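Pair request: fold both.
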Amino acid sequence: MEKVVNINSGTRNISGVRKVGEEFAAEFEKLGFKNFWIKMPFEMKRAGHLYSQREGEDGPHILLIGHLDTVFSKDSDFQKFTHQGNHITGPGVVDMKGGDVVMLYALKALHACGILDGKSIKIFLTGDEENVGPPLSLSRRELIDAAKQSDMALSFESGQQDQAVIARRGASLWSLGVSAKRAHSSTIFSEDSGDGAIYETARILKKFHKFAQNMPNLTLNPAVIAGGTSAGFDAGSATWTSAGKDNIIPQVVESRGDLRFISREQLDDARAEMRKIIEENLPHTSAEITFTDLYPAMSITPENKRLLGVLDEVSQELGYGPVGPNQPGDRGAGDISFVAPHVASIDALGPWGGGSHTTQEWLDTEGFRKATKRTALLLYQIFQSHQRHPDGS
């Protein structure tokens, strides 16, 4: 873990992401895996993904998921692995190089016992989980294909001793544009001038706030706003600009943010409600909203619950206590979300710690050991209790 944490692999550090992938590929090869590097087009500015596999017909086909990149760029002040007692700090120790190492050493344990012989295992370590390269149809195509060829998927984002993830919310972006009549401020609210773009935006956002609060597992975040006589966005620098005068009724507002949801049905309902709200315009105003899909939702399924049941049984046999489901609202989106619509899935099998995406990111070494043991025995139990039928089911 020290070796890979000390290699900077911020998402846009293409050479760094590939170098971390090479380190893991060398270890997987020792365990009998064949490695493939899935390249992305140059214009996407992403490193690609490591795909490793062992082919066999003994037991279920399992997909293991992790990622190689972190949120820390080459010029970040947070670059080094440090270890004091049971406390490790460093970029990616829990998100998620630590999880990748848990996966690796659980497989090493099974390999040492000869348990991997004849087993079908796919490993997919993405290179851009922290900032997925568009279009998603290309950057996640092979991951989804691997899921469709598998019976179950296990993901190694950071975890907790008593919880795992069998549902996590999806993510969508929204962009709101509001227009109004420009006039002298002394005439605002008049029949001829109307209420202006900022009042109309305030009305819309207040209603967004009210309806979102009454929908379980749904959040709606207005992340940025700009308005006045002019407003604009520079995608290259992610900078918003606006201009206006105190004595002019504002004629434009631009706002954007994200929407988190627990199912496609909830997403569709939320979008329909948002469209309805923006149509209830104040005088002399109009509004338009557009949506962009990011991550699908990982919804609760009976198959996911059964995987959690196996993990719970293993954890209690190890003396670690019971494992229950994590609250979906407690986690952000992740690569497991692309897989979950196609196959039984569980996430947060990695080590426990905290401070993800901050310069205080840390890992508990005892939790790291427990997560590795628990993963090894979880895989062993799955291999022992699942047999593939002649028809492949």
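--- second member of the pair ---
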Amino acid sequence: MAELSKERSLEETPTWAVAVVCFVLLAVSIFIEHIIHLIGKWLTSKHKRALVEALEKIKSELMLLGFISLLLTVLQDYISDICIPKSIGDSWLPCSKEAQLKSENKGRKLLYFSDPDFSYRRRLAVKGDDYCSKEGKVAFVSAYGIHQLHIFIFVLALFHVLYCILTLTLGRYKMRKWKVWEKETRSIEHQYYNDPERFRFARDTSFGQRHLKFRSPLTLWIVSFFRQLFQSVTRVDYLTLRHGFIMAHFAPDSETTFDFRKYISRSLEEDFKVVVEISPIIWFSAVLFLLSNTYGWYSYFWLPFIPLVIILLVGTKLQVIISMMGLRIQERGDVVKGAPLVQPGDHLFWFGSPRFMLFLIHFVLFQNAFQLAFFAWSTVSKNDHIYKDLLILRLDVNQKIL
């Protein structure tokens, strides 16, 4: 029984085993660092300044996670030795007592079919409970719980970075069709149709036919909501926004030379370096999510809808902004000269701040990555919890036998 419960220290471990573990960890770390360095050199050679800064922020996040891991490792024993009354320890649990009893019964059933020589890879499952159980209390957070939290933070960071990269990749893929629209601006047909000396009614232009039909705010929001679900950026919207941007920032003769698509692509990269960073507010939202994972709150039903509602509101608002710019064209007059000229402005956004819109997108990306990471972690931890129950039950059986 003593051999089953005792953990070997480094003094009792073969030096070759310690050397092998250290060698593997160092090799993996150096390999990852080298890959990140090569990616940085490649982005620098491609003059992707924003993506290079995003890579540096990813490295900063990895350093922060390493520091958190170090703190969890150093303070693990001290935290697990903090004891609280059982009445407090049984409050705000993620699962009901009935579910925990069912899990223990399931572990007992599995024990009958397990290998007699079965042993768990670590004894974190029972390490933090012995000290407090002698005093009739429970650990504030057991060593096994800290071990699980350690893994969850790593999984969360991994999913967040991968999710942001996937979003950037899908965004650039969606922008590929804009190449064709950008080439059209160099054609003779496009220049003739948008002749600066040509007069037309605003309602007869393609942009006017799409956005000047709905004037009621309620109707405008309803139509904009459904537009984002299909083709959010149409050819006429792209060309009109391009024309308005060039007229506001460049000379009129830049219409055939300025590449608006490349400008949007660079802007997307600038935004990527913002959303890939986990700000303190975003970390605080993660803490609130963990707090809401309490039995009886049913957060798994309503919490996933919060990012969905936010992203639908953001998409609808962006569509409304385009339509409002179209309505301002007709307010200046029924007749337009050349292409419809829209005038973007910060006042069209919520609180007059486009950065707030970017923050909402950042929040949605993190929440989606958080919930995916939480699902993956909880699935693995559930199986890990069964192994823990098997170990505890086996120790109890051995104690009775001895």
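Observation on the second member. Residues 56 and 163 are 17 Å apart (CA to CA).
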